[in-house]
Amino acid sequence: MAAIIVDRSLAAELVKGLSASGATSTPVIAPFTGEVLYDLPTSTPADVADAAAAARVAQLAWLRIGFAERRRILLKAHDLLLADRERLLDVLQTETGKTRGQAFEEVFQGANAARYAALSARGVLMTRHRRGGIPLVFAARVSYKAKGVIGVITPWNYPLSLALMDIVPALATGNAVVQKADNQGALTILATRRAFIDAGVPAALWAVVTGDGNDIGNAVVDAGDYVCFTGSTATGTKVGLRAMARLVGVSLELGGKNPMLVLDDVKPRQAAANAVYSCFSSMGQLCVSIERIYVERPVAEEFTAAFVDRVKSLVQGPALEYTTDIGSLTNAAQLERVTAHVEDAIAKGATLLAGGRARPDLGPYFYEPTVLTNVTSDMACFAGETFGPVVAITVVDSVDSAIADANASEFGLNASVFSRSKRRARQVADRISAGSVNINEGYRASFGSIDAPMGGMKKSGLGRRNGREGMLRFVDARTVAESTGLMTLPRTGAEFAKLAGVMEILLKTLRAIRRR
Ligand code: NAD
Predict the structure, then answer these.
(1) Do 396 and 494 belong to one domain?
(2) In this prediction, what percent of the chain has a pLDDT beyond 70?
């Protein structure tokens, strides 16, 4: 059994980076062992206001140093993240209970996001000329102005990568950040932030606060010139409404009930091996994780058998090396939720093919990876997000019915299609209502493609992170248009009478030559 790996002096050192003066603190539990990892100081609403005021001042200087210097600093932070990789992995694993491999995925993704934003910001935000409304008479150009202070609210499940996917593009585009960390992710965030501070990001430019969602979360929403929220649909809806009351923009990255479609031309064993990873990475505590599999009848038996075999062969346990395949749930509430979903399904007639029980012998929140079949609409796990290591396999008689089932959800975050024919898989992908669809992969192809937007349809969210879209969130477009002086526009009735005909001819000419 792993002991607590993060030595307490490191935790004590890292928490100095918090903006937290509250009289209270919260014990943070290490999921591998159930022991108290450290006491996390709590911020007050006044701390949030102070942090936002300091961030506002720091942002002005950050903006002045320009793209090239910001790029240099952010690329250095990328290098420091990699240099400090082993310690980051220790902190991440200790705080979340995930395996070394899945912790590594976070560092990889975070570094990827940092490099991308650092190298892309200037190109995305370059001032560009646009067509004037009347050729030669008007000229227009568009420039971008950083919004100022970005409020970022992050969950506990992917504390490093999800934070960096919002924060680095915010910084690269010239903004400051006030981040509310989830209690269970704060240490990882502080360890990550340290690489940025050491690289030259001013400490006040990226403030981290902690505390109760309603209290401190609201204060962060109220302090931001834009708000990025990652978390549940219920909380995200509240955050969106609150920001909207101030006419402040938001991006909401919310929950999912992500389907995988396995077509009848797959090699079942190969498809099953990849499918398993997509369901149980970080114990399924991943917004884009697969929770529903629709498999076409001709390959269903072989696929399901191979899938279950593979699940049963996964090595589970606490380890700070790459020796396990799956780890622990992150907290007691997660264990309760997963247990309730599985018990409810079984009580209502679902068939258990693998897993279905907690493993207190491994640690307090361990739960076996679980495969169900015969899941019906009266069960909690049918349509509701489990956010845990539970997947339901359903056999379907056609691709059309698989697509219909996949789309019959209030969510639309991620989906996956397995087929040996890329053409067929792409055609299916185009019919799925989800912000991302992965072919012959569960989530890693889209999640890792940092140049492409990520986000949800329907109740899975609003707005997009990553890519150009993920950067343009953080700026306001400013159009500067001018009159060239070549022609005086009509101002009086008499002038309109004289020029209306000419202007109509102009419109018809533009239409004829198809000028936009
Ligand atoms: P959550 O909504 O409970 O909490 C998320 C964050 O919001 C936490 O930091 C929390 O303290 C804070 N918060 C809580 N109440 C708040 C309020 N009223 N105002 C402002 N902030 C508040 O979600 P969770 O349980 O931490 O995370 C799991 C959920 O997040 C799942 O539904 C999962 O699918 C989703 N998620 C989505 C993505 C994505 O990119 N789409 C990524 C990861 C997780």
Answers:
(1) no
(2) 99
Q: Which domain holds residue 374?
A: 258-454
**Is 459 a member of any domain?**
no
pLDDT tens digit string along 382-399?
A: 999 999 999 999 999 999
Query: How far, in Å, is the centroid of ligand 1 from the Cα of 471?
Result: 21
0.85 surpassed by pTM: yes
Beta carbon of 287 within 6 Å of any ligand 1 atom: yes
**What strands, in cross-sheet order, belong to the sheet with 290-296?**
351-354, 370-373, 390-396, 290-296, 258-262, 414-418, 436-439
Alpha helices in 134-216 (DSSP H): 159-172, 186-199
Instruction: Mark whether 493 and 394 lie in a shared domain.
Output: no
Structure tokens at 100: 């070394």
Do 125 and 34 lie in one domain? The reply is: yes
Whether residues 244 and 272 share a domain: the answer is no
296 and 183 share one domain:
no
Ligand 1 atom 26: residue of nearest CA: 155
**With 0-12 CB in 10 A as exposed, 13-18 as middle and 19+ as buried, what is 382?**
buried
The residue-averaged pLDDT of 208-215 equals 95
Overall domain count for the chain: 3
Q: Are residues 41 and 168 in the same domain?
A: yes
Please name the residue whose Cα sits nearest to atom 27 of ligand 1. Answer: 231
Please give the span between the terminal C-alpha atoms of the chain, in angstroms, as a whole number.
67
